[in-house]
Each structure stands twice: as C-alpha cells, then as structure tokens.
Amino acid sequence: MTNMSRSPFTDEIEQAKPPSKFSMPHFTFFKRDGDPERHLKHYRSTMVLYWNNNALMCKIFATNLQGEAQDWFHTLLPRSIWSFDDISLVFTKEYSFHHSIKKKSDHLFNMKKNLKKSLYHYVKWFKAEKAKIVKCNDSIASATFQKGFPRSMHLLEAEFIEEVAHSAWLANVMPVVKKEKGKWRVCADYTDLNKAYPEDPYSLPRINLPVDSTSRNQLLSFLDTYFSYNQIAMYEPDKEKTAFVIE
User: Fold this and answer.
1) pLDDT per residue as tens digits for the range 150-197
2) Are residues 77 and 112 in the same domain?
3) What 3 state SS string does the chain have?
4) What is the pTM of this model?
5) Strands 184-189 and 171-178: what pairing?
6) What is the pLDDT of residues 55-103, one digit of tens each?
7) Fewest C-beta atoms under 10 Å: which of 30, 139, 212, 247?
8) Are residues 111 and 89 in the same domain?
9) Which domain holds residue 115?
C-alpha cells in the first residue's frame, strides 16, 4: 500500500482509482542513461486513450522508472506533483543533463592512469567514463583500458603484486616459450605448491552441461576475456603462498 504522506503525488492523485476496464499497456522502461524526451513521447503514444485521466497518467508513469530513476522519483518532495505536466517537467529537467553528457568511444583513448593514484581509482574512473558512451564497444573499451597504463609502469606500482618479507613458500620464475614478437613468456613454477595441496576431487564437467545451463539466463560473463582473469580476488590467507623469487 502506498504511503500517501510521503508520495510525490497529491492525495487526489493517490486516491484516484483506475478505470474499471483498464489494462496495463506494454512499456519500454526508463533507466538513468535513457533519453527523457524519447521516453515521454513513447509513454504519451502508448497512453493516448487515457490522456485526459491525469491521475492515471501520473501513477502509471511512475511505474515505468527503473533503477536509479526509480530512486530519484522517491526523492521528490511529498505532494509536489499536481499533474502529469508537473512530473514531465521535473523528469525532463533531471535527465536531459544526463543524456547531454553522452560521448563517443574515442573519448576513452584520452584516459591515462595517474601513477600517484591507485589501480582501484583508475578502474572506478574508467567505468564512470565508459557509462557516458552510447553503446560502447567492449573490445574498444578493453583495449583502451590496457593502453591507459604507462608502458614503464611496474607491477608494484599497478598494485598487481606486493612485496613479502618472509614467506614459507617460494616459487622460481622461469621462461617458458617465446611470444610471436620475440619476447619470452615468463611463468612462476608452482610445482611444489601443487604437490603439497590435495587434488581437486571434482572432475571437469562435460562442456555441453555448462553451456546448456546458460540458456535460462539473460547475461553470460566471461571473466577471462581479454586476459582480465586477474581481476578475480584471491583468498587473502592464500596470497602469501603464491610468493615467487625475482632476484
């Protein structure tokens, strides 16, 4: 039940009942990064049969907001909306600004990590700028994110590794194979560490099983795409066990 004392709509709007034969039309929901003018046009055309029912136009419009847009609606002052024109005006003013700051993908090419700031700060900043781009290409975003690191940036500066003074486990670093450009691919030899740990009792699943299990979901995340598997956090007490010698 709606709390009328805190609703942005007046009591008259809140207490109004929908027509007896009213059936909820199909709408395109509005999120924070949408175009407010286009959404209002879509909403008016869908509700054209109920244009003269001010209360219905207001209350149904509120149900079309999702995520941060729905949160914004509940920050409006109680009893501040008297008509659909009122809600249209404040809605347009709020989200015309968000829509106007949209940028193109080449905007990301200008982003560089500041050596004096943390990797977490760079990731957070990059995500915020990426959100301003309409239909940003993930391949471009991944490439520009990696290029944002200075070439001379050390792994310690990037907070990818950290120094350990004393460790019970030490692994040797060894070259494995040459890359196409002639550089050696270097890996840490965790043979002794693997021998000390119990083997995984779970066998690998048939490939068709995990593939079929994704059919019921709308999104599928590839954590290791573009060599980004290192973003998976390691269990804190186990970090020290992965120490390796560099000198």
Assistant:
1) 654 556 665 667 777 777 888 887 777 777 777 777 788 888 888 888
2) no
3) CCCCCCCCECHHHHHCCCCCCCCCCCCCCECCCCCHHHHHHHHHHHCHHHCCCHHHHHHHHHCCECCHHHHHHCCCCCCCECCHHHHHHHHHHHHHHHHHCCECHHHHHHCCCCCCCCHHHHHHHHHHHHCCECCCCHHHHHHHHHHCCCCCCCCCCCCCCCCCCCCCCCEEEEEEEECCCCCEEEEEECHHHHHHCCCCCCCCCCCHHHHHHHHHCCCCCCCCHHHCHHHCCCCHHHHHHHCEECC
4) 0.40
5) antiparallel
6) 999 999 999 998 888 888 888 888 899 999 999 988 988 887 655 455 6
7) 247
8) no
9) 103-151
Position 134: which residue type? V
User: How many domains in the chain?
Assistant: 3
CA distances from 76 to 9, 73, 95 (A): 9, 6, 14
